[in-house]
Design goal:
- This protein has 216 residues and is of the alpha/beta class.
- The chain has a domain of 151 residues: P-loop containing nucleotide triphosphate hydrolases (Rossmann fold), CATH 3.40.50.300.
- The protein is built from 8 helices and 7 strands.
- The strands form 2 sheets. It has a 5-stranded parallel beta sheet, sandwiched between helices. A two-stranded antiparallel sheet has the order 5-6.
- It is globular.
Amino acid sequence: MRLILLGPPGAGKGTQCKRIIDKYALTHLSSGDILRAQRAGGTALGKKAQAYMDSGALVPDDLIIEMMIGAIKKAGGNFVLDGFPRTVAQADGLTKALKKAGEKIDAIVNLVVADEVISARLTGRRSCPKCGAVYHIVNVPAKVAGKCDKGCGPLVQRDDDKPQVVENRLRTYHQQTEAVVGYYEGKDSPVLNIEADRSAEAVTADIIAQLQRLAG
């Protein structure tokens, strides 16, 4: 099974990705993890990417595509792509590379959540800088407001979860990654739009049900 997992930041991709992987025994191919591994390993691709990152520039699409295609080949045909493709150019490059190998993506799982829900989810998160525990001021509050339940001390709001940053992340998603969904609509790989403003369990059940229908 070859899947792509899409959705805005804070849609629950991490949780659903793990559950899909466990259910179908797939290889998790995270573009961020692969990029970091290439850099740490000092590979030719990693060195090229590092040069762009050190200068503050975005890593070019063709370099990301090359990295991900290499990882896909190693996965042996059963994988879920997480964080890739982020742009239409990356999606098109992936399609062409898979077609050349006589393969294609089986489905795109697209988690759909309204911006206001995403904003509330992310800006309400609080983290413990010592143990890494994550809370939410409404959904998963600490026993004592602003304090880690494990006695570590004060909770903090990560920079990524601050309102202005969340707004920028959502804007980037709408400008770039959201167009990837449109790219796949009407093509051989079906787009499964999953309403993700529900419990994680309900979202997982919906994903599995739709994938099973595709499988016949």
